[in-house]
Structures are given as structure tokens and as C-alpha cells.
């Protein structure tokens, strides 16, 4: 498995830049989501949008209770679940960032592992972005495809005192989009390094197989000496370095010409 993935990042400075940008974005999102929780401006903007005819009314739940009617489903964009979800994913993202930094220091933050991590983070932040800009079709008379504070200017607020809340919601949505884009942009780099490691492994295997099939690998020591090829190193099994002195001793160990003539 280690051979299929890169052990080190080719662009460590780029990775460090991603870490710094991610840290800044997570701290900002933690602050904005923490300010919005549990319900600083969610219901206020919901009601302001209804007064302008942009979306449903937050009083529809009370109306259903009073008239013993089935409770309507609260749109995700105005739900308490989305507010809590945003806080949870920002804390979770900070935890994952700390893990990534530790793994990178230990040298085991492989690109393939980075792909899985950032796919997961991209998915949960995509849910957050969709929820903040999500539709509101619970009231057939006032359907909305996109949250009004995202698609419209904050100057259209029914109550001008809510402009600050609208700008705060816009800023939170913008930070969420930046976080999502950051995680998505991290994926091509990690995927490129992963596929490059596999290509390197395939090229290395082809070179090794070519070396094994090469006729030079089957030559003896004397044949390599006569052809002027470099000798095999001691790391090769069964091969020893050949020097002129070694060749001279090998010659002396045989039958000398004068001795054979005397016989």
C-alpha cells in the first residue's frame, strides 16, 4: 500500500499554505457560527422575509398549533438543526486540521489519505452551503428557491434595524463558500500526487524487468571484462568486483607456459 501512494508532498510550501488558509477560515467560521447560535438572527430574518413576501412565516407553526392542524415542516434554511450543524462542522474541521498537521509532521500524511479526508470535508461543507442558501417552499403562496438574504441586497429589509443581521448572514455564507472551495481545490493536488506515485511505480517496475531481460545481465565476469563493461557491484548476488590485480592472481593460479613446456 505504501508503494501506491506518495510518501512526501512535492510542494510542501503549497501544503503549508493550505494549512494556514484553512486555519484562518475555520477560526472565522467558528466565530460567525458561534455568534449566530442558538438563534441570533435566524427567526428575525425569517420574519423579515415574510413581511416582504419573500418566504414563509415563522408564525405558521403557532398557527398550526392553534388550529389543530398538522405541523408544517420547517425549511432547512430556517431550522435550528442547520445552526447547530454549522457549529459542529466548524469544530470538527478544526479537529481534522490538527490531525492533518500531526500526520504531516510524522511524515504519514499521504496524498491518498488526503483525498479521502477532503472529499469528506467537501461533502459536509456542501451541505452547510446548501442549507444556508436553501429553498423555502413550505408556504405555497410565498415560495422561495434561494434564501432572500443571499439573492437580494440587505437594503431591501422590511425593518432597517435588521440590516446588520442580514450582513452578518451574508458574511457567514461567504465564509462557508470559501471553506468549500478551499477543500475542493485541495483535491486535484492530492489526486495528482497519488496518480503520479502509481505511474512512478509502474515505470520502476518496467525498468527492473528490462534490466532482468537485458543480455548484459547474463554475462560472466570475464565476458564483461573483455567487452569493457563495468563490473557488477558486491550488492549483486554472486558478483564480486574485478580489478587488474585480481585478474593477475587468477592467471598465476593456473599452469604457467614455461612449466608446461618443461614437462
Sum this structure up briefly.
This protein has 263 residues and is mainly alpha-helical. The protein contains ten helices and no strands.
**Mind describing the biggest β-sheet?**
none
Give average pLDDT, whole number.
80
Distance between the termini: 68 Å
Structural class: mainly alpha
How do the helices and strands follow one another from N- to C-terminus?
HHHHHHHHHH
Spans of at least 5 consecutive residues whose pLDDT stays below 50 are 1-5, 235-239, 255-262
Number of helices: 10
Task: Give the helix proportion (percent range).
Answer: 55-70%
Question: What would you say this structure looks like, in words?
Answer:
- The protein is mainly alpha-helical and 263 residues long.
- Helices cover 64% and strands 0% of the residues.
- The chain contains ten helices and no strands.
- Helix 5 runs antiparallel to helix 7.
- The longest helix is centred in the last third of the chain and has 51 residues, at 163-213.
- The protein is elongated and about 100 Å long.
- The two termini are 68 Å apart.
- Residues 1-5, 235-239 and 255-262 have low confidence and may be disordered.
Amino acid at each position: 500500500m505504501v508503494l501506491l501512494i506518495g510518501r512526501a508532498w512535492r510542494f510542501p510550501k503549497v501544503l503549508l499554505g493550505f494549512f494556514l488558509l484553512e486555519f484562518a477560515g475555520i477560526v472565522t467560521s467558528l466565530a460567525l457560527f458561534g455568534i449566530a447560535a442558538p438563534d441570533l438572527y435566524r427567526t428575525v430574518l425569517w420574519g423579515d422575509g415574510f413581511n416582504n413576501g419573500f418566504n414563509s412565516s415563522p408564525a405558521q407553526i403557532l398557527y398550526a398549533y392553534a388550529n389543530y392542524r398538522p405541523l408544517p415542516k420547517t425549511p432547512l434554511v430556517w431550522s435550528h438543526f442547520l445552526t447547530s450543524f454549522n457549529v459542529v462542522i466548524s469544530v470538527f474541521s478544526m479537529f481534522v486540521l490538527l490531525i492533518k498537521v500531526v500526520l504531516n509532521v510524522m511524515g504519514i500524511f499521504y496524498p491518498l489519505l488526503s483525498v479521502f479526508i477532503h472529499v469528506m470535508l467537501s461533502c459536509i461543507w456542501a451541505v452547510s452551503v446548501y442549507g444556508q442558501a436553501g429553498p423555502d417552499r413550505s408556504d405555497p403562496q410565498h415560495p422561495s428557491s434561494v434564501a432572500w438574504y443571499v439573492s437580494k441586497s440587505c437594503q431591501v429589509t422590511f425593518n432597517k434595524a435588521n440590516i446588520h443581521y442580514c450582513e452578518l448572514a451574508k458574511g457567514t455564507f461567504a465564509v462557508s463558500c470559501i471553506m468549500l472551495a478551499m477543500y475542493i481545490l485541495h483535491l486535484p493536488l492530492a489526486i495528482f500526487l497519488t496518480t503520479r506515485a502509481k505511474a512512478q511505480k509502474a515505470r520502476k517496475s518496467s525498468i527492473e524487468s528490462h534490466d532482468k531481460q537485458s543480455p548484459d545481465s547474463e554475462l560472466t565476469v570475464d565476458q564483461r571484462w573483455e567487452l569493457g563493461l563495468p563490473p557488477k557491484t558486491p550488492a549483486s548476488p554472486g558478483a564480486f568486483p574485478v580489478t587488474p590485480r585480481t585478474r593477475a592472481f587468477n592467471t598465476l593460479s593456473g599452469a604457467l607456459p614455461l612449466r608446461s613446456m618443461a614437462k
